[in-house]
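Hi everyone, sorry if this is the wrong subforum. Our group has a chain we'd like a structural model of before ordering constructs, and none of us has done structure prediction before. Sequence below.
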Amino acid sequence: MMETILRIAVQKSGRLSEKTQELLNQCGLDFNSGTSQLKIKASNFPLEVLFLRDDDIPGYVASGVADLGIVGENGVDEKLVTVDTIHKLGFAKCRVSIAIPRRFEYTGTGYLEGKRIATSYPNILKKFLKERGVNAEVSEISGSVEIAPAIGLADAICDIVSTGSTLLANGLKEVETFYKSEAVLIATPGMNGEKKPLLDKLLFRIKAVQKAKKNKYIILNAPNHKVDEIARI
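Answer:
Right subforum, don't worry. Here is the predicted structure as C-alpha coordinates:
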Protein backbone atom coordinates (compact mmCIF):
# COMPACT_ATOMS: atom_id res chain seq x y z
CA MET A 1 0.00 0.00 0.00
CA MET A 2 1.32 3.42 -0.97
CA GLU A 3 2.09 5.69 1.97
CA THR A 4 -0.18 8.70 2.39
CA ILE A 5 1.98 11.81 2.45
CA LEU A 6 1.40 15.54 2.61
CA ARG A 7 3.12 17.84 0.15
CA ILE A 8 3.81 21.37 1.35
CA ALA A 9 5.08 24.13 -0.93
CA VAL A 10 7.36 26.74 0.66
CA GLN A 11 9.40 29.65 -0.60
CA LYS A 12 12.83 28.61 -1.86
CA SER A 13 14.43 31.97 -1.07
CA GLY A 14 13.16 35.33 0.09
CA ARG A 15 11.70 36.97 3.15
CA LEU A 16 9.49 33.99 4.12
CA SER A 17 12.06 31.28 3.52
CA GLU A 18 14.17 31.41 6.68
CA LYS A 19 11.22 31.74 9.07
CA THR A 20 9.34 28.94 7.32
CA GLN A 21 12.26 26.54 7.60
CA GLU A 22 12.72 27.56 11.23
CA LEU A 23 9.04 26.78 11.92
CA LEU A 24 9.27 23.32 10.33
CA ASN A 25 12.37 22.54 12.38
CA GLN A 26 10.70 23.73 15.59
CA CYS A 27 7.81 21.40 14.80
CA GLY A 28 10.28 18.55 15.27
CA LEU A 29 10.52 17.63 11.59
CA ASP A 30 13.82 16.06 10.54
CA PHE A 31 15.03 16.22 6.97
CA ASN A 32 17.73 14.04 5.46
CA SER A 33 18.86 16.59 2.90
CA GLY A 34 19.68 20.26 2.80
CA THR A 35 17.49 22.90 1.22
CA SER A 36 19.71 23.11 -1.87
CA GLN A 37 17.35 20.50 -3.34
CA LEU A 38 13.96 21.44 -4.71
CA LYS A 39 12.20 18.54 -2.97
CA ILE A 40 12.98 16.92 0.37
CA LYS A 41 11.16 14.47 2.61
CA ALA A 42 10.88 14.43 6.38
CA SER A 43 12.35 11.31 7.98
CA ASN A 44 9.98 11.29 10.96
CA PHE A 45 6.67 12.54 9.52
CA PRO A 46 4.83 11.82 6.24
CA LEU A 47 5.64 15.21 4.75
CA GLU A 48 7.38 16.24 1.55
CA VAL A 49 8.57 19.83 1.08
CA LEU A 50 8.63 21.52 -2.33
CA PHE A 51 10.80 24.63 -2.65
CA LEU A 52 9.20 27.05 -5.11
CA ARG A 53 8.96 30.69 -6.06
CA ASP A 54 6.45 32.34 -3.72
CA ASP A 55 4.40 33.54 -6.70
CA ASP A 56 3.85 29.93 -7.76
CA ILE A 57 2.77 28.54 -4.39
CA PRO A 58 -0.92 29.60 -4.42
CA GLY A 59 -1.44 28.05 -7.85
CA TYR A 60 0.24 24.77 -6.92
CA VAL A 61 -1.97 24.48 -3.83
CA ALA A 62 -5.17 25.51 -5.63
CA SER A 63 -4.59 22.86 -8.31
CA GLY A 64 -3.73 20.13 -5.79
CA VAL A 65 -0.15 19.63 -6.95
CA ALA A 66 0.76 20.59 -3.39
CA ASP A 67 -1.61 19.88 -0.51
CA LEU A 68 -0.37 22.77 1.62
CA GLY A 69 1.59 25.96 1.23
CA ILE A 70 3.17 28.65 3.37
CA VAL A 71 2.92 32.04 1.72
CA GLY A 72 1.99 35.64 2.44
CA GLU A 73 -1.71 36.51 2.45
CA ASN A 74 -0.95 39.14 -0.18
CA GLY A 75 0.38 36.44 -2.50
CA VAL A 76 -2.84 34.45 -2.18
CA ASP A 77 -5.15 37.41 -2.80
CA GLU A 78 -3.08 38.68 -5.71
CA LYS A 79 -3.28 35.39 -7.59
CA LEU A 80 -7.10 35.24 -7.33
CA VAL A 81 -7.07 31.49 -6.71
CA THR A 82 -9.31 29.43 -4.46
CA VAL A 83 -7.56 27.89 -1.45
CA ASP A 84 -8.45 27.28 2.17
CA THR A 85 -6.59 29.54 4.61
CA ILE A 86 -5.95 27.19 7.51
CA HIS A 87 -3.94 29.21 10.00
CA LYS A 88 -2.10 32.50 10.40
CA LEU A 89 1.55 31.96 11.30
CA GLY A 90 2.50 35.29 12.87
CA PHE A 91 5.66 36.06 10.89
CA ALA A 92 6.59 37.91 7.69
CA LYS A 93 4.18 40.67 8.61
CA CYS A 94 3.98 43.55 6.17
CA ARG A 95 1.52 45.99 4.67
CA VAL A 96 0.59 47.01 1.15
CA SER A 97 0.78 50.77 0.78
CA ILE A 98 0.70 53.52 -1.79
CA ALA A 99 3.65 55.89 -1.82
CA ILE A 100 4.32 59.13 -3.70
CA PRO A 101 7.35 61.42 -4.08
CA ARG A 102 7.99 63.35 -0.87
CA ARG A 103 7.77 66.72 -2.59
CA PHE A 104 4.04 66.29 -3.28
CA GLU A 105 1.22 66.82 -0.82
CA TYR A 106 -1.21 63.93 -0.47
CA THR A 107 -4.80 65.08 -0.05
CA GLY A 108 -6.53 61.71 0.16
CA THR A 109 -7.49 59.03 -2.34
CA GLY A 110 -8.81 61.71 -4.69
CA TYR A 111 -5.15 62.60 -5.31
CA LEU A 112 -4.79 59.31 -7.19
CA GLU A 113 -7.51 60.15 -9.75
CA GLY A 114 -6.00 59.92 -13.23
CA LYS A 115 -2.55 59.09 -11.88
CA ARG A 116 -0.27 56.27 -13.04
CA ILE A 117 0.51 53.80 -10.27
CA ALA A 118 3.27 51.21 -10.65
CA THR A 119 2.89 47.96 -8.70
CA SER A 120 3.66 44.26 -8.50
CA TYR A 121 0.19 43.72 -7.02
CA PRO A 122 -2.24 44.93 -9.69
CA ASN A 123 -5.23 42.88 -8.52
CA ILE A 124 -4.99 43.99 -4.90
CA LEU A 125 -4.53 47.60 -6.03
CA LYS A 126 -7.40 47.52 -8.55
CA LYS A 127 -9.74 46.19 -5.86
CA PHE A 128 -8.77 49.04 -3.53
CA LEU A 129 -9.21 51.69 -6.24
CA LYS A 130 -12.59 50.27 -7.23
CA GLU A 131 -13.79 50.31 -3.62
CA ARG A 132 -12.76 53.96 -3.33
CA GLY A 133 -14.23 54.94 -6.69
CA VAL A 134 -10.88 56.10 -8.06
CA ASN A 135 -9.97 55.87 -11.73
CA ALA A 136 -6.23 55.46 -12.09
CA GLU A 137 -3.87 53.77 -14.55
CA VAL A 138 -2.29 50.65 -13.05
CA SER A 139 1.10 49.69 -14.50
CA GLU A 140 2.25 46.20 -13.55
CA ILE A 141 6.00 45.85 -13.12
CA SER A 142 8.10 43.29 -11.28
CA GLY A 143 10.96 44.31 -9.03
CA SER A 144 12.39 47.76 -8.27
CA VAL A 145 8.93 49.32 -8.08
CA GLU A 146 10.33 52.17 -5.95
CA ILE A 147 12.31 53.65 -8.83
CA ALA A 148 9.28 54.10 -11.10
CA PRO A 149 8.42 57.73 -10.12
CA ALA A 150 12.07 58.84 -10.40
CA ILE A 151 12.37 57.65 -14.00
CA GLY A 152 8.98 59.00 -15.07
CA LEU A 153 7.26 55.63 -15.31
CA ALA A 154 4.61 56.42 -12.73
CA ASP A 155 3.26 59.12 -10.43
CA ALA A 156 2.95 56.75 -7.46
CA ILE A 157 3.70 53.19 -6.47
CA CYS A 158 1.89 50.44 -4.61
CA ASP A 159 4.09 47.87 -2.90
CA ILE A 160 4.62 45.80 0.22
CA VAL A 161 6.27 47.70 3.07
CA SER A 162 8.00 46.30 6.14
CA THR A 163 10.03 49.15 7.62
CA GLY A 164 9.67 51.92 5.04
CA SER A 165 13.44 52.39 4.69
CA THR A 166 13.44 51.49 0.99
CA LEU A 167 10.77 54.10 0.28
CA LEU A 168 12.76 56.72 2.17
CA ALA A 169 15.93 55.86 0.26
CA ASN A 170 14.10 56.43 -3.02
CA GLY A 171 12.57 59.77 -2.10
CA LEU A 172 9.09 58.41 -1.44
CA LYS A 173 6.62 58.69 1.41
CA GLU A 174 3.94 56.22 2.44
CA VAL A 175 0.54 57.89 2.17
CA GLU A 176 -2.08 55.13 2.11
CA THR A 177 -1.94 51.77 3.86
CA PHE A 178 -4.90 49.63 2.86
CA TYR A 179 -3.89 45.99 3.30
CA LYS A 180 -2.04 44.04 5.98
CA SER A 181 -0.47 40.65 5.46
CA GLU A 182 1.39 37.88 7.24
CA ALA A 183 2.46 34.33 6.45
CA VAL A 184 -0.40 31.82 6.37
CA LEU A 185 -0.79 28.08 5.98
CA ILE A 186 -3.04 27.36 3.00
CA ALA A 187 -4.52 24.09 1.78
CA THR A 188 -6.16 22.64 -1.30
CA PRO A 189 -9.91 23.31 -0.97
CA GLY A 190 -11.91 20.62 0.75
CA MET A 191 -9.06 18.40 1.85
CA ASN A 192 -10.42 15.18 3.30
CA GLY A 193 -9.75 11.47 3.39
CA GLU A 194 -6.46 10.14 4.74
CA LYS A 195 -4.63 13.45 4.39
CA LYS A 196 -6.91 15.40 6.74
CA PRO A 197 -5.66 13.63 9.92
CA LEU A 198 -2.06 14.35 8.84
CA LEU A 199 -2.93 18.02 8.39
CA ASP A 200 -4.49 18.06 11.87
CA LYS A 201 -1.31 16.58 13.37
CA LEU A 202 0.91 19.10 11.59
CA LEU A 203 -1.35 21.97 12.61
CA PHE A 204 -1.24 20.76 16.24
CA ARG A 205 2.55 20.97 16.14
CA ILE A 206 2.49 24.44 14.59
CA LYS A 207 0.08 25.75 17.22
CA ALA A 208 2.18 24.19 19.98
CA VAL A 209 5.28 26.01 18.70
CA GLN A 210 3.39 29.30 18.60
CA LYS A 211 2.01 28.80 22.09
CA ALA A 212 5.44 27.90 23.48
CA LYS A 213 6.86 31.21 22.22
CA LYS A 214 4.45 33.05 24.51
CA ASN A 215 5.54 31.14 27.61
CA LYS A 216 8.58 31.61 29.83
CA TYR A 217 10.26 28.90 31.86
CA ILE A 218 11.99 29.81 35.13
CA ILE A 219 14.21 27.40 37.04
CA LEU A 220 15.33 28.32 40.55
CA ASN A 221 16.31 26.79 43.86
CA ALA A 222 13.79 27.50 46.60
CA PRO A 223 12.86 25.98 49.97
CA ASN A 224 9.77 23.78 49.92
CA HIS A 225 7.83 26.00 52.31
CA LYS A 226 8.15 28.92 49.87
CA VAL A 227 6.78 27.12 46.79
CA ASP A 228 3.15 28.23 47.27
CA GLU A 229 4.21 31.82 47.84
CA ILE A 230 6.40 31.85 44.74
CA ALA A 231 3.63 30.30 42.62
CA ARG A 232 1.31 33.19 43.52
CA ILE A 233 3.68 35.80 42.06
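For your construct planning: Residues 14 and 78 are 18 Å apart (CA to CA). Helices lie at 17-26, 57-63, 73-79, 122-132, 165-169, 195-213, 227-231.
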